[in-house]
Amino acid sequence: MEESGKKEPQEQLDEETLFIVSQTFKALGDPTRIKILHLLSQSEHSVNEIAEKLSLLQSTVSHQLRFLKNLRLVKYRREGTTLYYSPDDNHVMNVLQQTINHAQHH
Question: Where is the HTH arsR-type domain (predicted)?
Fold first, then answer.
């Protein structure tokens, strides 16, 4: 219960939470990663498909997917020798979609 209208002290963010939040915004702060995540939000794709659809080098796509995978923003499944990538964090994908909507209706 709050006494005499005073608010409880605000909880401090721990270092791990701060790191994850800042890395997530770093991920969403790069136009190439935004394009990749937006494409994957529509359906899963292989590295080659992503490179082709977004007119990017395969090495660029692989590098960005590694970054996104390390943050657990994308996951993959293997089919033969091909890896198919898809989103792995609905919270972040929702933030991305809301931000895209905001930008398009600004």
Answer: 13-106
- CATH number assigned to the domain with residue range 18-104, chosen from the 4 options 1.10.730.10, 1.10.10.10, 2.60.120.620, 3.65.10.10: 1.10.10.10
Residue with tokens 């090495």: 59
Please state the domain extents for the chain.
18-104
* Structure confidence by residue, pLDDT tens digits, 14-45: 999 999 999 999 999 999 999 999 999 999 99
DSSP 44-57: -EEHHHHHHHHT--
Give the pLDDT score at 11. Answer: 85
**pTM, rounded to two decimals:** 0.84
Cα(32)–Cα(74) distance, integer angstroms: 14
Spatial distance between the Cα atoms of 77 and 80, rounded to a whole number of angstroms? 10
Spatial contact of 86 and 76, defined as CB atoms under 8 Å apart: yes
